[in-house]
Design goal:
By secondary structure, the chain is an alpha/beta fold. The protein is built from ten helices and 14 strands.
Length: 313
């Protein structure tokens, strides 16, 4: 008899160390812009989503590739401090960890991200514990570790787990992953690149009728999101208005909170509202993780700002 899974959700994808510079404007070519402050925070799409899951009450784990350098150790320490299971992390001997340089505009809350992977090889499917994939209730994959994540999604879905994909940008391996994804939660950039549609609604319709997914959600930043499940009517949701300081990591938090909604078996629209609320709360503080709310904070915000849903204690 197979033992029960010790995790509620497993993420496979990017774990980085972000260096964030605070500016009043973004530099044009051949110009200089003053950086008012510099901070370093853990980042990465799947990693930040798992941190959100933990703060919101789930038991998450992460499989990501890091280097055996100071940055890699700092990445792991940050995840451990948040309570994310890092026992399945893969360290590349003599290799350098992934990182990002982020510039956050403190006037507009917008950000620009320069991402590097150096010479760190991609994760191999053989480095993933398949017995864990067969037991985990929810698997979230991003596009950083394709095609290994595509094969992982196939195994997890085949064993009865729910699969979620953070589609941030179209990359090699995306086509192989999509047939194994129950819930595609994609950026407009990904949806446009995948379908060649000229509007989010057209992209949503193309993706929802692909025959692969239970549901599709396309996130639109400050413009909210559109979503559809099965043959039901599509819906549009608005982003919550907050005094934003930094939008870095907002999409990652949306994905993590969305997984929390799935774990509670909420209707798709309620899961999206909850995810949008958590993403908005995060934006009130600098960095991708600093502002991620706890369960109590998120529910209090939803009760105040999304009263049309029934929120638990």
């Amino acid at each position: 008899m197979e033992r029960p899974c010790e995790l509620d959700v497993l993420g496979i994808g990017a774990a980085t160390l972000d260096t964030i510079g605070i500016v009043d404007e973004f530099a044009a070519p051949d110009t200089k812009v003053r950086v008012h402050a510099v901070e370093r925070h853990g980042g990465g799409t799947a990693a930040t989503a798992m941190v959100a899951c933990r703060r919101l009450g789930l038991r998450p784990g992460l499989i990501a590739k890091i280097g055996d350098d100071a940055e890699g150790r700092e990445i792991v320490r940050g995840l451990e401090a948040e309570g994310v299971d890092v026992s399945q992390m893969v360290t590349g001997a003599g290799q350098r960890s992934t990182g990002s340089f982020c510039f956050a505009n403190r006037k507009t809350s917008q950000r620009v991200i320069y991402h590097y992977r150096s010479q760190l090889p991609f994760l191999a499917f053989t480095q993933i514990d398949q017995s864990l994939l067969k037991r985990v209730p929810i698997l979230l994959v991003d596009t950083a570790e394709l095609p290994a994540a595509a094969k992982a999604a196939e195994v997890a879905r085949g064993a009865g787990g729910m699969t979620v994909m953070d589609g941030d940008s179209v990359r090699a391996g995306s086509d192989e992953a999509l047939p194994h994804i129950d819930y595609l939660v994609a950026s407009w950039e990904f949806a446009r690149g995948q379908t060649m549609a000229d509007a989010p609604q057209r992209a949503l319709e193309a993706l929802r009728w692909s025959g692969h997914h239970r549901a599709v959600v396309i996130t639109l930043g400050a413009e909210g999101y559109v979503g559809a499940e099965g043959g039901r009517a599509s819906f549009r949701g608005e982003a919550f208005r907050v005094k934003a300081v930094d939008t870095t990591g907002a999409g990652d938090v949306f994905h993590g909170a969305f997984c929390v909604g799935l774990s509670r078996r909420w209707p798709l629209e309620q899961a999206c509202v909850f995810a949008a609320a958590c993403a908005a709360i995060k934006c009130r503080r600098l960095g991708g993780r600093q502002g991620i709310p706890t369960w109590d904070e998120a529910i209090a915000f939803c009760r105040e700002n999304a009263r049309w849903h029934d929120w638990p204690e």
